[in-house]
Amino acid sequence: MTGAFGEAMRDPEDAKRRVDDWAAGFAQKAERYKAAQERTEELRLTASSSDGTVRVTVGADGVVSDLAFGAKTRSIPPEELARMVLTTMRQAQSRITGQVAEVMQEQLGEEDQETRSLLLNSLRSRFPDEDDPDDGPPEPADPTPPPPPAPSTPPAPSAGRAATPPAGGPPPGQPPTGGATPPRRPGRADPVEDDNTPW
């Protein structure tokens, strides 16, 4: 019988010792990861605006844990104050990756570099450096005003439909109403008058 199993069968005490060593090493590694996690959860990163009006503190997860304002904020417009808060918060968040990397190096040394790289890359994508030109949301574009409405034109009369006569006039083809007699044409006598004329 060959291989590691065969050696274990020949020396059971040595096999037991190896299993114990592996279990102890695993437990120690778990303890180091637990310590690194606890130390990371205790991290607090604070940044202040250039004039000290705004101070923001965040945890390793980027969540704001404290926000303080100076007396000068009373004279700052709300829009400007909101911009200062966001800028200061991003400055504090940009330090998260570096602080977590220091904790992991302190607690874990050089082990498990691949897992560490994945974690730190994830933090960098969430909380980029404050000097990153892509940091922060893009500025909203100026809204384009809508085009002016087209001038309204009266509808053209449909084909085959006579135009509406002016108000008060008779329809086309009908004599005027109201008893009025149309004027005579000059130079033509009424035939009824000619018969009744005695001369």
TrEMBL record:
Q: Which domain of life is it from?
A: Bacteria
Mention any Pfam family matching this sequence: YbaB_DNA_bd
Q: Where is this region: Disordered?
A: 103-199
Q: Which Gene3D superfamilies match?
A: Nucleoid-associated protein YbaB-like domain
Recorded GO molecular functions are: DNA binding
What InterPro entries would the database entry show? Answer: YbaB-like_sf, YbaB/EbfC
* Ranges of biased composition (kind: Low complexity): 116-125
Composition bias of kind Pro residues appears in 138-157
Q: What is this protein called?
A: YbaB/EbfC family nucleoid-associated protein
